[in-house]
Write a structure and sequence with these properties.
This protein is an alpha/beta fold and 320 residues long. The chain has one domain (2-11, 58-109, 133-319): UDP-N-acetylmuramoyl-L-alanine:D-glutamate ligase, CATH 3.40.1190. Helices cover 38% and strands 26% of the residues. Strands 6-5-1-9-10-11-12-13-14 form a nine-stranded mixed sheet, with helices on both faces. The protein has a five-stranded mixed sheet with strand order 3-8-7-2-4. Strand 7 and strand 8 form a beta hairpin. The longest helix has 16 residues, at 288-303.
Length: 320
């Protein structure tokens, strides 16, 4: 039995520390995610040669599954990579992280997200989806979802060509009583698909993750009121407040989760690891207060380093 199975874009994370002028040169707006084609990706990567970036498997749902494994849980990931060396690396490193691979192949380049970390610790993405966009309903393994406590879906999956695979996964989960978690992922993504995202959340979601900007995009309200609105159409609503912690509403109560103070190296992967901690706690039937503390602690470990994933097990007894 998996604690959590995730489905989303299988993207290699290529992480670089750059100054603000570099983003201006590339015409990238700080703090956003921009999709790029293969040619643009090659141009950007050529400009990054010699800067010594980090390479690791990534993608929001995949990062969360790695976080579940860091916490000592059982997790699996559904995605698609290319028939290329980067695809080989993605599958190999995912398995090494303790995540069960449910990854299929496609005859195109493995997708990758180039992450730029600026001196203010903000992250900016230039993403080439590559093989990830070819994830299809036939790639969704029904048995693996049936044998999981929670299905975790990243919001990016619910737009464009991958949407059918995401809907299929949620239909299987709902049919078999598997809890469904959705991370709405990005405020601009929500605004492009607002009506459809509201329909999907009402139809499928048991657990919903948003940050403050996403909460406002989804409900047109600030954090507390947004939390209450989302709770009306889900069992557990989560609004992440960054350095101010988070709010979780479950069983009719609002739980204020305090942040764990740490020296911030970057914010890349913080939300994904927060989701890992909370979902692990829910899967293991922890009280929401304990699950929230674990989520906050796990997230603090990630923001204290440059990469989006931890390379070690988490001592959960230190979560307070």
């Amino acid at each position: 039995m998996n604690d959590v199975v995730g489905i989303g874009s299988a993207l290699l994370d290529l992480t670089y520390e750059v100054d603000f002028s570099f983003l201006e040169e590339l015409k990238l707006k700080k703090g956003t995610m921009q999709l790029i084609d293969e040619e643009t990706s090659r141009i950007i990567l050529s400009k990054l040669e010699g800067l010594g970036g980090e390479v690791s498997p990534g993608g929001s749902a995949s990062n969360t599954m790695a976080g579940i494994a860091n916490l000592g849980g059982t997790s699996a990931f559904i995605g698609k990579v290319g028939n290329d060396p980067r695809g080989d690396y993605y599958i190999r490193e995912s398995a090494a992280a303790g995540v069960k691979s449910l990854i299929n192949r496609h005859d195109s380049l493995t997708g990758h997200a180039i992450t730029f970390i600026t001196p203010d610790s903000e992250r900016t993405f230039a993403t080439h989806l590559g093989a990830a966009v070819h994830l299809a309903p036939e790639d969704v393994p029904a048995e693996a979802i049936r044998q999981s406590r929670i299905l975790h879906v990243e919001g990016y999956l619910l737009e464009g060509d991958m949407k059918e695979a995401g809907i299929r996964a949620m239909e299987i989960a709902k049919e078999h009583g598997v809890k469904i978690s959705i991370d709405l992922a990005d405020s601009s993504l929500i605004m492009r698909n607002l009506g459809e995202f509201k329909r999907i959340v009402r139809s499928f979601a048991d657990i919903v993750f948003v940050n403050e900007e996403e909460a406002r995009a989804f409900t047109a309200n600030d954090a507390v009121e947004a939390l209450n609105i989302i709770y009306l159409i889900s069992e557990i609503a989560v609004v992440k407040l960054g350095e101010e912690g988070s709010l979780v509403k479950a069983d009719g109560r609002v739980h204020t989760v305090k942040p764990c103070r740490t020296k911030v190296a970057n914010t890349n992967g913080a939300g994904d690891m927060y989701a890992a901690g909370l979902l692990f706690g829910i899967a293991r039937k922890m009280p929401i207060e304990e699950a929230g503390k674990l989520a906050s602690y796990a997230s603090s470990l990630v923001v204290a380093q440059v990469g989006a994933r931890l390379r070690h097990k988490i001592d959960t007894t230190k979560a307070g």
